Amino acid sequence: MKTESRGTQITNQYLLFLDRHIDDVIQGRTMEFMEINTIARELAISHKHLIYILQKEKGKHPSYFYNLKIISKAKEMLSNSPLSIAKIAFILTYDASNFSKLFRKWTGETPGNFRKSHMPILIKPAARN
Q1: Quick check: helix, strand or coil at residue 40?
Q2: Rounded to whole angstroms, how far apart are CA atoms 47 and 25?
Q3: What is the pTM of this model?
Q4: Phi (first) and psi of residue 33, to 5 degrees
Q5: Given its phi and psi angles, is residue 33 left (phi above 0), alpha (psi -120 to 50 degrees) or beta?
């Protein structure tokens, strides 16, 4: 039986922690996103070690995965929720302007354009003559 490396364990713990933490923020159980050094402390490692491990295992800084997961949740909310973009930004602890900038940087489009192109198409009943 092959045991996963400590680096893989730390990476998986970090990614699972992010999922739970982001969900806690969205559900209102936590009021703001933690900083990377606080997350590392929660995982009982130094932030430098966390950065080293994520760079080694995944080739990216921990903040990359943090932002990626936040944008993923934002996309999900924009596609499946009637909430306004400003309300979604607020839930994700951003003001609308900074949220739009971050979203555009990561996706190449504004939250409004993303929503328009990804909302489920409602089937309208056929018109009667």
Answers
A1: helix
A2: 21
A3: 0.86
A4: -75, 140
A5: beta
Q: Which of 19, 16, 4, 8 is nearest to 56 (CA)?
A: 8
Residue-wise pLDDT for 66-115, tens only, equals 999 999 999 999 999 999 999 999 999 999 999 999 999 999 999 999 99
As to burial, measured by CB atoms within 10 angstroms (0-12 exposed, 13-18 middle, 19+ buried), residue 62 is: buried
Q: What are the structure tokens assigned to 11, written together?
A: 């990476």
Structure confidence at residue 83 (pLDDT):
95
Residue 87's contacts (CB-CB under 8 Å, 6 or more residues apart) are none
Structure tokens at 14: 């970090």
Contact (Cβ atoms closer than 8 angstroms) between residue 75 and residue 118: yes
Token representation of residue 116: 């328009």
The helix or strand, by DSSP H or E, that contains position 6, with its residue range, turns out to be: helix 6-26
